[in-house]
Task: structure prediction
Amino acid sequence: MATSLEARLARELPGYARRVVGALEAAGYEAWVVGGWVRDALLGRPGHDVDVTTSAPWPETARVLRAAGIAVHETGTAHGTVTAVADGRPVETTTYRVEGGYSDHRHPDEVRFVTDVREDLARRDFTVNAMAFHPERGLLDPFGGEKDLAARVIRAVGEPERRFGEDALRVLRAVRFACRLGATIEPATQAALETCAGGLADIASERIGQELDGILSTGRAAWALRSEFVVMAAAVPELAPMAGFDQRSPYHAYDVLEHTARVCAGVEEFAGGMAPAALRWAALLHDVAKPACWSEDVSGRGHFFGHPEAGARVAREVMGRLAVPGEVTRAASALVLLHDLEVRPTRASMRRMLAELEAAAPGQARPLAFALLDLKRADALSKAPACRGYAVELDRMGAALREELAAGGVWRVRDLAVGGADVIAERGVEPGPGVGMVLAQLLAAVMEGEVPNERAALLAWLRW
Ligand code: ATP
Ligand code: MG
Result:
């Protein structure tokens, strides 16, 4: 008899997934919903994509589903996967399989199709991801995933060291799922993470980038830095020198790593847990170049001259290598570059900040301005107690920024109420770079408040 939990899952299973499972079973095969949908539905978070696993060999899956009026795309047939599209919704449908040897720690040497769903579940990474569900047969949970999920525990399926040795990406996936679920990592699994983290060096960097982006998007990067730094530093070796780096400065109460963890937590609080991706990356990387830029003055006090510029370079390098989208990379490195920019709670200062952001990340100045103030606030609150008053001033800067934007703030040449043609007509300059120089001077004059951004006033300024 179905438990009430199973009855709830059966109710929540979307009709299109039921159609795929039903069609395969009507043809004499066995089919189950697996992985992320089962995990998230048990947590009361349905809405995850549905993946199906089946005893049907993939050509049979394709034939049976097409005969039932379901479109099929042959998306990954080498691994037994086709994508069924039922009622307009994709369902990845994969033949029961296990992976053969992993002589290079990342690619299975072969995929072997099997006949028992339990074997398929056993090749999956963590107990919470190794459950199958069928609307009539209920939950199939051979590794205690339901119990681990309820207790919020990430536990490897099988012998952890062997599983991480087969595929080192699982090390980073463990941290991602722990962040996502707010879970802890079971001790034997944790020990294996630390032993096997070095294997990440052999994993394709864009796969690392995807998992890391997944970690940041949970909003729990601070936990990952504090509790799983071995894994984080194996994924991004540039982070390693932050740990234990004593800043020897009256401004700082923490080492660079704990400071960074606090800034990561801070930006989440200020953005209500919805910090934009660029701000999350910037929080992680804003002080990454501090250890390399450290110098000591005669009194023994530490300084970090040039660390924002160097940090922005490192951010571009790291994020480029991890194949983070270019727009996010440009935005994050602009935030790193400008995180120490001196700002005051005046509209003129906010205008200058917008212009600096515009130069560093063209077209993104407006959203980044708020992100930069959040980053600066989190940064201030993560230093020595004496620096924290600055966070209050930042609220006044936010108000000045809003005023400036509401007043139609001007920080780009194209915001000016005149254009190149006016410069040519009024000044008599030849078309060419001279026009841009005049416009840049005019923008500076407007930003300094010497002339209002009104067409008549600007034309007069040009004539003058
Ligand atoms: P998400 O919401 O993050 O996509 P998910 O559970 O769907 O969560 P995927 O990475 O899409 O995660 O993988 C789907 C399923 O395939 C997982 O639940 C897990 O069972 C299995 N899986 C994926 N990657 C691996 C891996 N590297 N090693 C073992 N099993 C894996
Ligand atoms: Mg998925």
Observations:
- The longest strand covers residues 89-95.
- The radius of gyration is 28 Å.
- Residues 36, 49 surround magnesium ion (ligand 2) (CB under 6 Å).
